[in-house]
Design the sequence.
């Protein structure tokens, strides 16, 4: 099978399984409504915390509220997309521990697609909605000297950011083949990374920013492109061209995550029953 | 396809690296040879029982045959396919039922799981409907299709799982303990169904079990595995010879008497006037009966064939002794 038809098959299987999970959750209608509502409330409060901070100060690390909203919106939207599509991958560890992962292996269809769709939860849509709202508000209120490259960079950044976060989810899942109780560690990187990116790079120490740029390239999700769009100097004194690197970085991340996934799957050893 | 067989297993091994914590940060590494140079072939349409004590390596073998586990050594082919290399291609040609797990969707009506199989395996519509109707009839699932799986009993769920594994017309069906925890009636239903499947469709069946009646009623061939090695491969009846089994002569005397003396037969049990004599299965029963009848006041007698469970239990025990010594 060519890579292309495998991708198509993967998407088909993903849709089928995600559909089953949505139907399963809908059988518990009340609980579904309640969790969806609760989720929306909690994600909503996330940005309120930042608003409260700005009630005390005018700037955060030299960034104004609209600028921070822009930054926040970029990260939250990109993360939201990855979280909706792959956010449940942390249940893989539990499936490996109890042996039910075996079942996925005897079905046709790419295992990655089956695992990605496992425990698909529509309630995660709340994050995307909230991210888009904050991003929209930021764009409306922020002071930008718009140009064609800046306007083009915006959608490219969102797509690349979602891909970078997705790679992080897949790599974290791959790690669970080695350590089945690594779900917490995975969440520390994904959710933690998202939280980190909601604040300007200037509030963090140089070493942390360096790590988030060169080791775990989260800075490409929003810090670098947003700095360029806002006519601010790029963190770490990087040249402006680096702001256009997100697509390349995201492709590299996805390739690395794909390799990690393959290695993890190959090392799978099932359980003793 | 080669002449060799539909399933070909050639000196296959599986070694697990087991790490155990022996103290803070101290770990001990040990290797478990779960399957140790196992070879066999299964022809298309055969129905084979795979038995052995707990931890013998049955499930590990099945997992390698289905592509779940990668063998540590040896060669494995199912329908000419190397299972772990071409898992997805193989998936369309095999059906798997794990007695301890389910493929069904817990919160949804049974029929929803079947609809998923229909689309996942891309089963042509007409074929799907035909197979579903047949399976529903044979496995008696009609009343259960609209019931959420979590409300099914164990036996009902097992029948549901078997149907789910067969909707795509697999050429081979692996069953790992399909009758575990089922009552007599459910077991009979499952066995009757498997016999029919094998006879009608020629589906190759490999089943592991701890219930020897499964084997007696279904399989013309049985493989016994212990400590990862095949101890026996042949017809069920042949196990008696290998197992050095004994038959039992039960005699009812006129009154209570001291144990009968009729070597090489020996008395294994006395209960009032009734006595049980064990003698080698290969010896003639007639000679023994004649001798006993000549010397003792007989009222009635019967000969019992060796109990297959006992034969196998003896085989496991012998093997364990050999390993220990
Ligand atoms: N994933 C694993 N990791 C480590 N050891 C394993 C694993 N799976 C099986 N084993 C070991 O391999 C051996 C064979 O196990 P297997 O599950 O194949 O036995 P079995 O014949 O199916 O037994 P049972 O009748 O109890 O189901 C056992 O010693 C078991 O502890
Ligand atoms: Mg087993």
Sequence:
């Amino acid at each position: 099978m060519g890579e292309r038809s495998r991708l198509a098959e993967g998407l088909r299987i993903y849709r089928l399984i995600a559909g089953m999970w949505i139907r399963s959750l809908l059988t518990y209608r009340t609980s579904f409504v309640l969790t969806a509502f609760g989720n929306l409330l909690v994600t909503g409060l996330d940005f309120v915390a930042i608003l409260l901070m700005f009630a005390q100060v005018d700037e955060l690390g030299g960034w104004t509220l609209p600028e921070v909203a822009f930054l926040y919106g970029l990260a939250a939207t990109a993360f939201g997309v990855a979280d909706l599509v792959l956010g449940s991958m942390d249940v893989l560890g539990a499936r490996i521990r109890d042996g039910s992962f075996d079942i996925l292996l005897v079905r046709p269809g790419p295992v990655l697609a089956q695992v990605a769709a496992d425990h698909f939860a529509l309630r995660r849509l709340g994050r995307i909605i909230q991210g888009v709202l904050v991003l929209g508000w930021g764009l409306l209120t922020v002071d930008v000297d718009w140009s064609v490259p800046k306007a083009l960079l915006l959608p490219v950044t969102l797509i690349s950011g979602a891909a970078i976060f997705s790679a992080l989810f897949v790599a974290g899942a791959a790690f669970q083949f080695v350590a089945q109780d690594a779900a917490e560690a995975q969440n520390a990187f994904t959710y933690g990374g998202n939280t980190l990116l909601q604040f300007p790079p200037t509030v963090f120490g140089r070493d942390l920013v360096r790590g988030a740029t060169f080791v775990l390239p989260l800075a490409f999700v929003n810090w670098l492109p947003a700095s360029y769009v806002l006519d601010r100097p790029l963190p770490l004194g990087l040249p402006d061209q680096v702001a256009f690197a997100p697509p390349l970085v995201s492709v590299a991340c996805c390739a690395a995550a794909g390799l990690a996934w393959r290695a993890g799957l190959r090392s799978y050893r099932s359980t003793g029953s | 396809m080669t002449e060799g067989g539909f399933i070909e297993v050639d000196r296959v091994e599986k070694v697990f690296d087991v790490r155990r914590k022996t103290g803070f940060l101290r770990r001990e590494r040990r290797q478990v040879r779960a399957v140790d140079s196992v070879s066999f072939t299964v022809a298309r349409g055969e129905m084979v029982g795979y038995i052995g004590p707990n931890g013998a390596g049955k499930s590990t073998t099945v997992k390698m045959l289905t592509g779940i586990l990668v063998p540590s050594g040896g060669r494995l082919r199912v329908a000419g396919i190397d299972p772990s290399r071409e898992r997805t291609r193989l998936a369309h040609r095999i059906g798997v039922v794990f007695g301890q797990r389910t493929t069904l969707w817990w919160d949804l009506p049974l029929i929803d799981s079947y609809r998923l199989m229909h689309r996942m395996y891309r089963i042509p519509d007409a074929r799907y409907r035909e197979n579903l109707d047949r399976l529903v009839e044979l496995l008696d699932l009609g009343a259960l299709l609209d019931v959420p799986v979590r409300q099914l009993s164990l036996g009902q769920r097992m029948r549901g799982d078997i149907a789910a594994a067969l909707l795509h017309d697999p050429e081979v069906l692996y069953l790992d303990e399909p009758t575990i925890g089922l009552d007599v009636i459910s077991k009979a239903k499952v066995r009757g169904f498997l016999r029919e499947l094998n006879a009608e469709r020629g589906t190759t069946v490999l089943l592991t079990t701890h219930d020897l009646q499964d084997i007696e009623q279904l399989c013309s061939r049985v493989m016994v595995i212990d400590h990862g090695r095949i101890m026996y491969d042949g017809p069920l009846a042949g196990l008696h010879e290998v197992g050095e089994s004994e038959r039992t002569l039960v005699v009812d005397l006129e009154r209570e008497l001291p144990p009968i003396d009729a070597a090489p037969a020996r008395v294994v049990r006395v209960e009032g006037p009734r006595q049980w004599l064990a003698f080698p299965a290969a010896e003639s029963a007639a000679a023994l009966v004649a001798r006993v009848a000549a010397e003792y006041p007989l009222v009635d007698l019967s000969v019992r064939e060796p109990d297959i469970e006992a034969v196998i239990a003896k085989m496991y025990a012998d093997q364990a002794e050999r390993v220990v010594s």
Residues 246-305 of chain B form one domain. Residues A 269-273; B 16, 18, 32, 34, 52, 54-60 surround adenosine-5'-triphosphate (ligand 1) (CB under 6 Å). Chain B has two domains: 7-240, 246-305. Chain B has ten helices and 13 strands.
